[in-house]
Amino acid sequence: MPQKLTIVIVGGVAGGASAATRARRMNESAEIILLEKDEHVSFANCGLPYYIGGEIAERQKLLVATADLLRTRFQIDVRANQECKKIDRAANQLSVRDHLKQEDYDLAYDKLILSPGAAPLAPPMENADAPGVFTLRNLADADKIREHAIKTSARKAVVVGAGFIGLEMAEQFHRLELDVALAELQTQVLPPLDPEMSYPLEQALRDRDIQLFLGDGIASVMTDERGNASGVKLQSGEAAIGDLVVLGLGVRPNVQLAKAAGLEIGATGGIAVNRFSQTSDPDIYAVGDAAEYTYGPTGQQMRVPLAGPANRAGRLAGEHAATDGSAEMPEVQGTAIVRVFEQAAGITGLSMKMARKLGYDPLSVTIAANHHAGYFPGAKQLALKLVFEKESGKILGAQCTGVAGVDKRIDVIATAMQLGATVRQLAGVDLCYAPPFGSAKDPVHMAAFSACNYLDGIDAFLESDADLEGRQVVDVRTEKEVSSKPLAGAEGTLPIPLDELRQRLGELDPAKPTVVSCGVGVRAHAAARILRQNGFSDVQNLSGGALVRQWAVAKRTAE
Amino acid sequence: MPQKLTIVIVGGVAGGASAATRARRMNESAEIILLEKDEHVSFANCGLPYYIGGEIAERQKLLVATADLLRTRFQIDVRANQECKKIDRAANQLSVRDHLKQEDYDLAYDKLILSPGAAPLAPPMENADAPGVFTLRNLADADKIREHAIKTSARKAVVVGAGFIGLEMAEQFHRLELDVALAELQTQVLPPLDPEMSYPLEQALRDRDIQLFLGDGIASVMTDERGNASGVKLQSGEAAIGDLVVLGLGVRPNVQLAKAAGLEIGATGGIAVNRFSQTSDPDIYAVGDAAEYTYGPTGQQMRVPLAGPANRAGRLAGEHAATDGSAEMPEVQGTAIVRVFEQAAGITGLSMKMARKLGYDPLSVTIAANHHAGYFPGAKQLALKLVFEKESGKILGAQCTGVAGVDKRIDVIATAMQLGATVRQLAGVDLCYAPPFGSAKDPVHMAAFSACNYLDGIDAFLESDADLEGRQVVDVRTEKEVSSKPLAGAEGTLPIPLDELRQRLGELDPAKPTVVSCGVGVRAHAAARILRQNGFSDVQNLSGGALVRQWAVAKRTAE
Ligand SMILES: Cc1cc2nc3c(=O)[nH]c(=O)nc-3n(C[C@H](O)[C@H](O)[C@H](O)COP(=O)(O)OP(=O)(O)OC[C@H]3O[C@@H](n4cnc5c(N)ncnc54)[C@H](O)[C@@H]3O)c2cc1C
Ligand SMILES: Cc1cc2nc3c(=O)[nH]c(=O)nc-3n(C[C@H](O)[C@H](O)[C@H](O)COP(=O)(O)OP(=O)(O)OC[C@H]3O[C@@H](n4cnc5c(N)ncnc54)[C@H](O)[C@@H]3O)c2cc1C
Ligand SMILES: CC(C)(COP(=O)(O)OP(=O)(O)OC[C@H]1O[C@@H](n2cnc3c(N)ncnc32)[C@H](O)[C@@H]1OP(=O)(O)O)[C@@H](O)C(=O)NCCC(=O)NCCS
Ligand SMILES: CC(C)(COP(=O)(O)OP(=O)(O)OC[C@H]1O[C@@H](n2cnc3c(N)ncnc32)[C@H](O)[C@@H]1OP(=O)(O)O)[C@@H](O)C(=O)NCCC(=O)NCCS
């Protein structure tokens, strides 16, 4: 009988616990040891903000699989409060610190899976560890923040960083009836989005009187006479006052162990792995926030610190470690979503600014449409931005904001991207439609149609934040619409309602670079087609119309 | 200057109006004539049931684009109440009946687009046209039904046919506080679904005391002494009593015109077309309910009487007619959805029964999972059935039922199918996840994982309606679960809670064909893996566990 296979897993949550259970299902006889330096394994990190805010009322709910369950059901040797301190690859052995017993021991492995996650960024600064300053990664952090927010007399919270977690915390502190200030170094909330697409979230925050400091990073923590945090000093010199400070500045991958063991680290700072999540040492796997994945839009290795990929990669690594084989870890699109009060914002793949940064020659269209049939009660407008490659039409990414149906559109497009689709293929997807659920032409179709029109030279889309100076800007909305909501950031706009355009062509100069705009872009599209067929040689449709223009201009002037 | 291109379109709603607007956008100079035999063009057919029930309160809302708008904005010569009576292909000319003026005239065309839709099936039978008997296709029908339901003393409605429209009508009559009886020839509601997947809808109907007659077709209409409908007599001899009868028996494509003109009719009875929607006469296009599409799962031509395909095909046909070129009409997956009270049911592609009927060797898995993270408040369970090809793993179809998130899962899978994906590719889709929106492993992933496990021989799934006779059935739920909800249609089940299974293997016979079951299939999967690795040679997981088993058995015994 061959020697029992010993699989040791470092990190007992998203990637680690997923690896452990799949490894067990694939291999009843292996010894599977799960090391977790903290108290809890398999908890719902993603639920922590909602637990703090009380939207998730029972702490118990956050314990997705208890250590007991993993032990009984999956025969996993769960070792909480035990930290892997060193990997000795030559000896196939780890050095482990038992934090309860306060002692170290060696642990042999045949296969090692690293899923140590990431640590919240906490830049060195004055008073960084004053009482009342928190980061959020695990249940202990959540307990502390919750306690501070509820049990002390905290009245105002300062959240630093308006990424996914920062936004969730701002929302949840508001739920706790704290005043909230939110500071972000970038000039927008949710920096992965293009600026204009983040604006609806910004509005949702401002609607709740959440004080926003955008384009302003944290310089230091301020303290009161007792040394407790009393707010943060920002780089601009401004102060955000509060008796509770949460830093949501992003994460740093936990690669120290791997580095010390001489494992290869990738260009983006995560542990380098192949498609089976094997590191440069094939007996050692790495998954989750500490590792890199193949990023779909670029085909490059990249860190994607999200729970979905961690779960899926952990599952496959567990299988591979347990059986010496598995499917490859598919490409990851970086699909993510956040709720900020009534608003949701989702993204998959590349934003326009990121696509440009990476040297693509990207095009984009933004459409706004109802999340289900407009004639059915409860229809809500969403905005959908599609980013695609000019040459091939390949979808590079999408962003969506709205109060309903955002997740569906992002998931449909993420699925199309996973399969390498072009916008032309996206235009043909056959989505379900009944009035309560969608439209005969879904927003996804509208975006794809527009993208195809762009590629085919049928329409051209001007980005919503473009400088309109020197162009002939035709606003084809009705007079009433124009006067009640003039096109933002545009002077000398020519208002000609679409239905009068054919008769009033003489008022326009066909030789001039012309931009048409309307409410969201639909009428402008019809107008652009009329102009193009009447000798106007340079016609562009202002992407997303007056609606998205307003967001873009608001963001432009904020910079 | 070349002669003006004249495009005539027959049928002014989903396919026809879409063709007209796109044709105009692509060609400013064409003459575009839209013939509609009835009063209204461009109305929301799909909204009619909700208008009848009052959920859509304003009739006006159903008029998506008015004739005036089409005239002014799109310079379309809208001719309502004018019916195309004949196509003279040799002369490129139509014979048109003006129903208002009560006269006929000839109309020349260069390109002709047929989108005449379909007509409700109304089998010849006794009293078929008694007052109080209705079919529903257009606004006039809706007005009549609404008037009858509201203004007469109607207290009970009989709906015949439990397809999409029949179900919507049953729901909406209930909303009007009518008693409702629903009769269906098939032994299930929503016949496109596999029987067990239709059961949650059936429950939703029964919960409202809607009287169901399943497996019973209509024989005749019954009338009262004044000759008004008083219900329907069913083939079984039973009577469904009501003072309002709506027939929702499906549709018959309007192909008479095309047939008379000698255009080719396809094998499924729709007008045969190529990928540009051109009929056997390349100057004549056909789209919508009257035509056929290439059906994705089979690659065969098929009628798919749904609004999405009609809109998209109309758009492309309009472009092709106007410019002599367009993208091809992509394959259609037959993706559809219906709401029945709180329940939704969606389908894309082939059901298991249909796949079998078509000669495939299909496999299926059914999973049940929460529509978003279970630890986040408001999570609702949905059931998702994935049908796929044994050899290739190609996705053939999916069905989903639940009270939330059904449309999203169907759309994701429909998108994957559009791109020819296998279940292996589906397992890798990178969907958005935050607690209010999904799970780190989405139900789509769970279904795809299970399908891959099936293909890889890691687990095998027994269909939920299988005969368990002669098998060793192990129920791995807790004692409490088993006693409170015994596994339906199973005798002599061996209850061994999963967490005791390893210790109690001796109670089982490894040589016997073994079926494991639990609540929804997750624990049974773990159990199956234990058994398989302990010498059990034939182990199957009861797909969807006790939950779906209960639906399947309820349907089986109903037959
Ligand atoms: C507040 C919050 C909200 C989030 N919300 C979302 C969301 O909505 N959607 C989403 O997709 N993602 C979200 N995430 C991110 C998601 O939780 C992570 O991407 C995911 O948990 C990463 O999995 P992992 O296994 O790499 O790391 P983790 O789940 O963090 O697990 C790593 C574990 O390893 C342990 N560990 C580290 N070093 C050692 C060692 N040397 N020895 C033993 N144990 C060690 C750590 O203590 C930790 O418990 C959120 C994260 C946080 C913190
Ligand atoms: C009550 C109801 C609910 C529905 N719900 C949904 C749903 O939720 N989701 C979904 O996808 N689909 C739904 N449908 C189906 C959808 O409406 C059709 O698939 C779609 O309208 C088909 O488009 P079409 O252009 O082929 O036909 P239609 O939209 O019916 O248009 C055809 C038009 O042609 C006219 N016409 C016919 N012959 C002539 C002629 N000789 N001369 C002039 N005019 C003529 C007809 O009067 C008709 O107005 C529903 C249909 C109905 C009736
Ligand atoms: C829960 C956790 C321990 C993983 O446990 P798990 O048993 O692998 O996962 P699940 O309970 O979700 O079950 C999934 C398994 O059931 C299978 N399954 C799901 N539904 C099924 C059904 N109806 N029938 C049969 N099998 C089914 C899946 O295929 C999968 O098995 P496989 O991996 O062998 O293919 C791990 O994901 C975890 O710790 N999660 C919490 C931490 C976390 O993810 N944090 C970040 C997000 S908040
Ligand atoms: C409404 C109807 C007349 C079609 O009109 P339409 O002008 O083609 O359609 P829409 O108003 O939806 O506009 C779609 C057009 O706007 C474009 N568009 C949408 N959003 C846009 C945006 N933000 N910016 C630019 N263009 C946009 C689309 O690309 C499309 O143009 P294209 O076809 O030239 O590519 C026709 O679909 C109809 O009659 N519908 C009702 C009947 C029906 O469908 N019944 C069944 C379902 S209830």
TrEMBL record, chains A, B:
Its EC number is 1.8.1.14. GO terms for molecular function: CoA-disulfide reductase (NADPH) activity. It is an enzyme of class 1 (oxidoreductase). The keyword Flavoprotein applies. Its cofactor is FAD. It holds the Pfam family Pyr_redox_2. Residues 467-549 form the Rhodanese domain. The keyword tRNA processing does not apply. It comes from the Bacteria. PROSITE patterns: RHODANESE_3. Coiled coil: none annotated. Keywords: FAD, Flavoprotein, Oxidoreductase, Redox-active center. Belongs to the class-III pyridine nucleotide-disulfide oxidoreductase family. This is Coenzyme A disulfide reductase.
